[in-house]
Design brief:
Elements (H helix, E strand, L loop, with lengths): L1 H28 L22 H26 L17 H24 L23 H4 L4 H38 L18 H18 L6 E3 L6 H4 L4 H6 L4 H11 L4 E3 H9 L11 H6 L11 H14 L1
Antiparallel strand pairs: 1-2
Helix pairs in contact: 2-5, 3-5, 3-6
């Protein structure tokens, strides 16, 4: 019990230190500015203080995080799936580092975004996700990121596990089955029996998982901060890859839903991280369900670009419109 409590306290202190470290790096090293809605002179935004339920949820989620970190550490120490994960620096390759890291971020959002969308259904939203949206303008980093219903927090943890497992087995398993298909095409025999394996691990280096976990934590804190941090990979899913005057893309404009969906897939900025995207989700709940990659929202048509603060005239116009509607 004493060891458990000691580990819990160490991890909580580490989270607090890490949260402040991210802010220090953003302010001092990267010189990032705040979002336009937080700039001096912008209309004041409403901040919601933490209530009793928030502190209870933060405590329960902290316990869940502790169990997750302990389980992940044990998993890495034991060598992962079929004990095929390596710790050796000499075995680091492009595939189990950079490629695997990309698979983790993409697969995590591929699962998280639709589940996040599901939690916004009218029947589920007031039961689980509504508490997290009390703050329309997140600013406290970890405290706003972790201030969510324990069920929602568990969903996020499961998505993280899914990301790690996907990166570990996806490429090796695909390679294994391609080899089997190649052998079957050449020999006409198919491996069978109790000894046949369906998946294979070793697709990610243990240190890559640790780097992913650090980046995931940092970006989650930044998503709930006031800083205007953004970056993208413009050459992936970009119209410039095919050319703006591409005849195929022009023909897609004449098609109905399928054509529009294909064009969003081909030309959309899939890997496009921005704190402003998540602020827009808190301000306008039915948009930007992805955390880091916007490909789900591009495909589903729920992507909304960042909008700055409204001027005094625009605010007055909105008030008049609301009065007319009443």
């Amino acid at each position: 019990m004493q060891l458990w409590l000691f580990g819990f306290i160490i991890i909580r202190l580490g989270v607090i230190f890490y949260d402040h470290l991210v802010v220090l790096l953003i302010e001092k090293c990267f010189k990032s500015k705040v979002l336009p809605t937080r700039e001096p002179g912008a209309p004041p935004v409403r901040y919601v203080s933490l209530d009793t339920r928030s502190f209870v949820f933060l405590f329960l989620n902290a316990c869940n995080e502790y169990q997750f970190v302990m389980r992940l550490t044990y998993y890495l120490w034991q060598g992962g799936h079929h004990q095929s994960m390596t710790w050796k620096l000499t075995e680091m390759t492009l595939w189990n580092t950079i490629i695997a890291l990309g698979i983790m971020f993409a697969s995590m959002d591929m699962l998280y975004a639709p589940l996040h969308h599901l939690m916004h259904l009218p029947t589920l939203y007031p039961l689980i996700h509504k508490h997290h949206h009390r703050q329309h303008y997140p600013t406290r980093g970890y405290l706003d990121a972790g201030n969510e219903h324990p069920i929602e927090h568990m969903v996020g943890v499961l998505c993280t596990w899914f990301a790690v497992c996907s990166s570990e087995v996806l490429l090796p398993t695909c390679g294994m089955w391609l080899e089997r298909l190649k052998e079957y095409a050449m020999s006409g025999t198919w491996e069978s029996g109790d000894t046949m394996t369906w998946t294979q691990g070793g697709g990610v280096h243990a240190l890559t998982v640790m780097v992913f976990f650090q980046l995931h934590a940092a970006l989650a804190c930044l998503n709930h901060s006031p800083y205007n941090v953004k970056f993208s990979l413009p050459f992936i899913g970009s119209a410039s890859l095919f050319g703006a005057e591409n005849k195929v893309l022009q023909r897609l404009d004449d098609m109905t839903f399928v054509g529009k969906l294909l064009k969003r897939i081909i030309t959309g900025q899939w890997f496009n991280y921005s704190v402003g995207h998540h602020e827009m989700h808190h301000r306008k709940f039915n948009y930007n369900y992805g955390q880091y990659c916007m490909f789900y929202d591009r495909w589903m048509g729920t992507f909304l670009a960042y909008e700055g603060p409204m001027s005094t005239a625009e605010l007055e116009a909105r008030k008049k419109n609301k009065l007319k509607e009443k």
